[in-house]
Design goal:
It is a single chain. The chain is of the alpha/beta class. The protein has one domain: Ribokinase (UDP-N-acetylmuramoyl-L-alanine:D-glutamate ligase, 3-Layer(aba) Sandwich), CATH 3.40.1190. The strands form 2 sheets. The chain has a 9-stranded mixed sheet with strand order 5-4-1-8-9-10-11-12-13, with helices on both faces. Strands 3-2-6-7 form a 4-stranded mixed sheet. Helix 1 crosses helix 9, helix 7 crosses helix 8 and helix 9 packs antiparallel against helix 10. The longest helix is centred in the last third of the chain and has 16 residues. The protein is globular and about 60 Å long. The structure holds adenosine-5'-diphosphate.
Length: about 300
């Protein structure tokens, strides 16, 4: 069982020839709506692999909220913990230029209404899981409360500090079992350089000294650096031809949670998460690119 506490967003992907200037209206060649938000993406990845996934999240009181709920159900996610807020659903207008350059706006909307008090309504979900997974598109205080509850009930907790937030409180981070930043997020948090593997190792060890049990620094096509108190290794990525890396980080986190919840040890779960994330970068889209357990087999063999 996996419990994800976090965000959901509707991606409004607009393919443009160029940005309009002020006062101008121009045509854009294409548009696509997509289900996103880091929390939702991670929940979908774990669920497609076969985990029993519960999600604590907040959708808006609007059409997007209804579509989100339908999408969670379609992906066999338990929505007991999903509530309807008063604000609009979280949305992300994304503008993609012909050069593939992106401009992204994030409207957190109802995700900001996922307050610490909301978690107290779902203590049963929090107590009865193998791992709790957190990201940073909901209020930081809610994550802190989730970490405290996880510690109280002895449930392993994974914090994926994305998007980076300089205000993240190190005292709470030090209480997590798994901390999974990318190089940039690690640099933001520690204020240490992360330009090469030695520097990344040093910054990761610093976090271990502060109390984090396992550091898992994702390194894109290089894989993931695992550091714990007495061991650690670079778990290399699978070599693939990447066509779209959006959502790769989330597929990695969600699949790691699945494999860990299945009882795999950390390096094995990391190896399998690398395999899962590698398949997603060979396919277009975010959740759309996440394979089921059955599809994954055909990719690996
Ligand atoms: P983020 O998108 O959060 O920055 P990364 O780019 O570090 O995350 O990617 C997360 C994981 O996805 C990596 O650890 C790796 O397993 C996988 N991955 C990302 N890009 C590639 C790639 N080009 N080839 C193979 N695996 C990849």
């Amino acid at each position: 069982d996996v419990l994800v506490i976090g965000s959901n967003m509707i991606d409004l992907i607009t393919y443009i020839n160029r940005m309009p200037i002020e006062g101008e209206t121009i045509e854009a060649p294409d548009f696509q709506m997509g289900f996103g938000g880091k929390g939702a993406n991670q929940a979908v990845a774990a669920s497609r692999l076969g985990s029993k996934v519960s999600f604590i999240s907040m959708v808006g009181n609007d059409t997007f909220g209804k579509q989100q709920l339908a999408n969670f159900k379609e992906n066999h996610i338990d929505t007991t913990g999903v509530s309807i807020g008063t604000k609009s659903s979280g949305a992300a207008p994304i503008f993609v230029e012909p050069t593939s350059d992106n401009r992204i706006l994030i409207i957190k909307g109802a995700n900001n209404e996922l307050t610490p008090e909301v978690l107290d309504r779902y203590i049963d979900l929090i107590k009865n899981t193998k791992i709790i997974v957190l990201q940073q598109e909901i209020p930081l205080e809610t994550n802190y409360h989730a970490i405290d509850l996880a510690n109280q009930f002895n449930i392993p907790v994974l914090l994926n500090p994305a998007p980076a937030n300089e205000d993240l409180d190190i005292n709470h981070v030090s209480k997590v079992d798994f901390f999974s930043p990318n190089e940039t997020e690690l640099a933001t948090l520690t204020g240490m350089p992360t330009n090469n593997l030695d520097e990344i190792k040093r910054a990761a060890k610093h976090m271990i000294d502060l109390g984090v049990k396992n550091m898992m620094v994702t390194l894109g096509s290089k894989g993931v650096l695992w550091v714990s108190k007495d061991s650690g290794e670079l778990v290399p990525a699978v070599k693939v031809k990447a066509v779209d890396t959006t959502g790769a980080g989330d597929s990695f986190i969600g699949s790691f949670a699945h494999y860990f919840a299945q009882g795999e040890d950390v390096p094995t779960a990391l190896k399998h998460a690398n395999q899962y994330a590698a398949v997603t970068v060979t396919r277009q889209g975010t959740q759309k690119s996440y394979p089921t357990a059955a599809e994954l087999v055909s990719h690996i063999n």
